[in-house]
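We append the chain.
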Amino acid sequence: MKIHELTEEKMEIFESSDDDMDYIEHVERAVEVDTTVKQHNATEATNELGDQDGICKVLHWIIEPWPTPPKYEDSCPANDEEGPTMTTRQPKDPNLDSNSDLLTRTSWVDAKTAYREIKKGRAFGNTCALRLRGTLQKHLFNLGCCIQKHCGKVLFVGLLLLSLCCVGLKTATIETDVNKLWVEAGGRLEKELAYTKEKLGEGSGYTSQLIVQTPKLGTNVLSAESFRLHLKAVEAATKVTVDMYDIKWKFKDLCMPMTFPRFDNHLLDSILDNVLPCVIITPLDCFWEGSKLLGPDNPIAIPGMNRITWANLNPKQLVQELKDLEIPFPSDTIEEMLQRAGITSAYQEKPCLNPTDEDCPQTAPNYHDKQIPNVGSEVTGGCSGFASKYMHWEEDLIIGGAQKNKNGYIFRAGALQSIVRLMGEKNMYEHYLDDYKVNNIEWSQEAARKVLEKWQREYTSVVNKVLNETMQDNVYSFSSISLTDILEQFSEVSIVRVALGYCLMLVYAAISLLRWNDAIYSQSGIGIAGVLLVALSVAAGLGLCSVFQIGFNASTTQIIPFLALGLGVDDMFLIALTFAENSRKDDIPYMDQTGECLKRTGVSVLITSLSNACAFFMAAIIPIPALRAFALQAAILILFNLGSILLIYPAIISLDLMRRQEKRVDVFCCFEGSSANRVIELQSRPQSPPPEYREASPPPSYRDIHRHNTMTTLGPDGVHPVTVLVGENNDGARFHSAVSPSSLPPSATSSRQCLTPDEDQSCKDRCVQTQQECCKLSLTWFAKKVYGPLLQKASVKILVIILFSVLLAFGVWGTTKVKDGLELTDIVPRETTEYKFLETQSKYFGFFHIYAVTKDFDYPNNQQLLHKYHNAFLRVENIIKKEDGSLPDSWLILMRNWLLDLQRAFDRDYQLGCITRDRWYDNATEDGIFAYKLLIQTGDSDSPINRDLALTSRLVDSDGIINIDAFYIYLTAWTSNDAIAYDASMSDLTPVPREWLHLAEEVEFLIPRSQPLTYAQFPFYLNNMADTDEITSTIKQIRTICDTYVAKGLPTYPSGIPFTFWEQYLNLRFYLMLSLICVLGAVFMVITFILMNPWAAFMVVMVLAMTVVELFGFM
């Protein structure tokens, strides 16, 4: 057999291989033929050219391999991104493209072929992975072909379903309640807050509005001028009024007033209603000017006396004057109550900041000498309100950044702080429930909330005007509604920002997929359509999240749209670029284009999308609701994008394929495109070569593309080459030119080239050539020619390992230094007064109000345990204590002290004979009579009174234990008759104790018994809580105390803003580590299942883990 005949047989074998499934069998035959050709040519070459030339010819023919079918020719990268699954032992054919997909990315193109090669023993690899990948590719190919066949229907149904899901956005609600966003779902804090809400009701208690002042020049705010400015700011706050429901609401209508018992005396009750002030914690209480904040706005007119305001009121003197006027009222009771509360001369004996003020009282220490007081010495030790016993403000609460001299007096301070208290919405609703003020409106708790919110916003605006009017100091205000407004503002969807982000992506997609020199094969249209499809998928996914009741929050509105866009267009670009590569390949039939595109990219899209979705689902392990909602929403959106990219986007590219087929312009598909050159594929025919001639390996036939066989010869002039077309018969048989190979000149060659109508290059051709030359300097060129070879050098590998190890070591070290915490300043714009307030307040005060709550419990029999529990908080350094180092008195201590005072009064009256076993006389004191009524209470509903107990029992025993049997009767008496102390205790006893007012002239001994307590609290103030570490440390201390006493049988828990905001950080790192382990585990399982390669999955997971450590450490 001659050499050229064997070669013809080799070509015919491949040309007959129309079915890819028979490819392996044809290859076997081709290899046998090829071996014979090589041996024959080697022998001839050795005989004709000598030993040296013969050896070269032998080596040349030995390394020539058998060809690869054209279906797998492509220009894809040499390494499959999923990792190698097959390695072939066959050498390459120099006439084939070195980047042929079948040679370089066999499993990516057709895993089934790779699987068969391994089974034949001509390659080695992971057969399990190839078998699974082949199955996936088969289904993806069939899916793509089906979508291409019914692209219009698929697109219509897909867009319809996405649009229906978007309807769910109507039910979307943005959550701004901090408790619902930040409190651990299902944790103890959530249960504690639920218990508090159940017992007290939503909106109970009070809210604090804060005013902070700092100096603009210097570092000292302790001057009379600064205090007068502070007075101006706080006074402006107390003058704020708002109109709502056709009612004017003043500060006095909304504030927390001092409680005073009712006496069923119209004149006395009306005076008390007007004169009882709001509770304001301020350093101004050290001076007479503090009285200007208390009002009343309309001075009280009393017959025979001057008009009364707190600026000229001396409560002790007023009671005496009323007694002198012989106005009937329980003077003894009021005097005793005022004395017990420490209400004496109020502000009349305090120094005046401005002694020249005409209203400065003559009893002021500096009235006569007109000297400016030493502000620092006056505020040392704190300030007291009009009720000095229950309204003493420690210096840490009102003075920030204080510095003391060696004598213990403050000589420098960085800030002043005042706190204005308002009623909670529930308290306000109940306060005005039966009041004439709201008779004409539909009064509800919601209405009360709206009034409070409007007033707080107006308050912030008014106080901030003081800042704008002064150049002396900085004055910042903050209300409880400010935080809610910040969260609401931060949670609002910025339509402009989202639209701008998506428009930029549209522009990027259009430009990056644009081919300005080829309007037909340009892909801007599918790029724009892909971005719009991702946008619709994001909206549909969020709509489904709304239907599933996954609440929206700031992370949803600020992060999710852009995150989902980035993850979605990633797969879109992958499919679009693969489609662009395949669309110009003649070996892929037109109806298989979409299927082949999905076959090659679908597995990669599945791996990335499923890995990301599983990672976000695993991140939902973190129990913080805001983060959990974010993770779930991100996972759902990734799945929506996956469905859209694999089902709807192929329909879009199928329509674009139809546009190309019809030669329509990209984007403007109504216009037809044109091509400057008509490209004709040419193919050489085999000839009998001279000894030095080597025949090229012919490419296989194409089923759908017409081939032209050509031969290049010299023209008639013997100088210019000409190309001769060699045609085919009607039956497909190849016919040859009349020119015989022997007649060709020695310079004749075989070629494969393109014919154009004109031999001269057009302007467009030159532009295309220039663009191709410029495009060589691309990232692809850099990676292939520079970066890739560089990384293969041993020295570079060692350097990379060393640098990575150093980075990893720094990352591990950095993880130990990372601090927890999300400061409120992180979500507030820097140029706002809210940001400046939060920064200043955190720097100088770090003030928080907390409670130690006790639940349903046998209070009467466990009083000693309650006292020990209260005293245990002495160990918490950040709790503000009294000057003597003790804690503020609890409600139980205040009740006990009140009973001890009554007991002492009874003992005196009994020793004087004013009270006996059976009766009392007119000279008995009111407190003695009151004590007698309490002593004879048995606590037994069947026999409530026993007069013998007046002489045998004690209200409080020698151990400080209140009479256990009559405990709840005494509780009724204390809360009703010592209302100032009860109000100052802020205990919120629940159920609310019953009311019973003592009147000495009444001989009714029965006192109603209050219900057993199920809720009570001890209030504390925390200071110097500037950073998260300090706050969490204090939380741990308090939690340890609570847990200790829970173990002793006292059901208790702490409550307050620090626990709501910061307790999550106690276990955050544990949950973060747990979620990361689960995320990495999920990625490992996905990669292992799809690639069937645990080692590759392990390496990916290890790289991810080390990357996370480095990122976390460098934060």
Remarks:
- The mean pLDDT is 79.
- The radius of gyration is 45 Å.
- Residues 23-62 form the longest helix (40 residues).
- Residues 793-819+1068-1113 form one domain.
